Amino acid sequence: MSRNCSIVLHAHIPWVRHPEVPHCLEEDWLHSAVVETHLPLLEMLFRLRSEGVPFKLTLNLSPTLLAMFRDKLLRRRTLSYLDRTLRLCRDEVQRGDITGFGHLAGIYEERLLRFRSLFVDQWQGDLIRAYTDLRDSGHIELTASAATHGLLPLLMRVPETVQAQVRAGIRQYVQCFGRMPRGFWLPECAYAPALSQVLKHEGIDWTIVEEHALTTAPQASEFFPFTPGMTPDGLMVFGRDQASSSEVWNADEGFPGDDRYRDFMRDVGLEAPMEYLSDYLGESGQRQFTGLKYFRAYREGDKSEIYDPVLAERALEEHAVRFISSRGAQLGGLEGEGVENPIVICAFDADLFGHWWYEGTGFLEKVFRKAAKRADFAFTTPGAYLAENQERTLPAISPVSSSWGEGGYFETWTSSENNWVYLEIQRRSEQLVRYVRIFEENKEIYTEENAAHRERCIRLMTKELLLAQSSDWGFLMKNEPSREYAVKRTRQHLDNFDRIWAASTNEDATSILDDVEQANPMFTDLPWNIYEPCA
């Protein structure tokens, strides 16, 4: 019998591209993710591989994130963001005599210089190539996901909408990685029973759901979520283990909350004099996080203590030992209870590691190194686990609707602040399905020029509707600082859909189509019939 643990990271940023301004706060969501999560993660994984340390990691890179990784303008802007932060870092080193933080600023400067070299010299700005290299050496498994992170269960009223999200997401994966995916990450881990048939029909073998999607199902096995199940459609489903995942990311008791770690909120960009930050902030003049932080999370009243990397390293050692020991004991206990070849799925948002939890990438490295020295369990991926257990009959399961959002279902996206979105999307989805069906049934009556115009309109309406469906916008509408931007983006994509709809019968309206196409240069070669009626 084998005992397995699987760490699954989901990396996602909504489509944010604003060439109309030199510096955009929302666009920095991407750049900070690259600098604080992806470059540290890649550096660590390549280091383990070069040292021959065995490890396996599952990673989902959302289609919008992949599109931004491929975008030449955004690559240049990521480098500009890196250089801008480096300049501020050098200023902080010089200012260290006044602030007393020169030593920490020097550590940050050295770190950013390493990342710049990796980004520019080793990978030429192409992070997809870097991740593909790790995939090809068998160290990571990459999964597909829905095109724009649409919350699929809330889109099921028009099944073609879900079909389009899944097909466009798989298409982006194939274009980036050169092969069909086996696994599919459900945005927000959100599942509804009808998704099983859709995913299997599109060639997907497995997915991950929340633990309670399996354990509360009518025919639940007593061994869930530590063994995968199989739906009536033949989709293999893994359950995310809530207990082990919570050890890391629980807001109150998770490892990142230890007061020896770095305080995320105490940032130079929020505290230094505005005149000093003017070059960094640019024309926006809006305070923002810089990644340069000098305090640890420990506080006594209003007083904070300076961040101590040595102290943080001790915390990492303790937490890595605790995590590994807990997984060994957990898997041993499961085997003792009769669970055949148990697997514990620990799934997280990738930006927890490096961005929110500065030391998080170091935690992963220690965990992989310590696991490599143990004989009682190993890290694997869902795909590798299924390959090793292909002769095994999996228990039948029909997972119930669920998500990893607050409350375990869909309340986060059906609140008074955001529930209007899905009615607007549904109406336009029904319009598009009818339009595609009528066009397909009568295509022979159009001239070649007229047919090409309508196909272009369908592709653009499809893209704008996909962009409006991002679950991020609904989530951010509940968050006061970002609500205005989220509403604006949603309405912008819906308005673009309406403009294209009006232009679809006017072959002279190419300027409108050009404007929309240039504003969002992603998914540029979608098939026109990706929104075709479901069978």
| N-to-C order of helices and strands | EHEHHHHEHEHEHEEHHHEEHEHEHHHHHH
Q: Given the C-alpha coordinates, what overall shape results? A: globular
Largest sheet composition: 9 strands, mixed
Structural class, by secondary structure, is alpha/beta
The CATH architecture of the largest domain is Alpha-Beta Barrel
The fold-level CATH name of the largest domain is: 7-stranded beta/alpha barrel
Whole-number count of domains: 2
Count of β-strands: 11
Q: What is the percentage of strand-forming residues?
A: 5-15%
- Return the average pLDDT rounded to an integer: 95
Give the termini separation. Answer: 43 Å
Q: Rounded to an integer, what's the Rg over CA atoms? A: 24 Å
Using the coordinates above, name the CATH class of the largest domain: Alpha Beta
Number of helices: 19
CATH homologous superfamily assignment of the largest domain:
Glycoside hydrolase 38, N terminal domain
Low-confidence stretches: none
How much helix, percentage-wise, in residues?
Answer: 40-55%
Give the structure's gist in a few sentences.
51% of the residues lie in helices and 10% in strands. The protein has 535 residues and is α/β, with parallel strands linked by helices. The protein starts with a strand and ends in a 16-residue tail after the last helix.
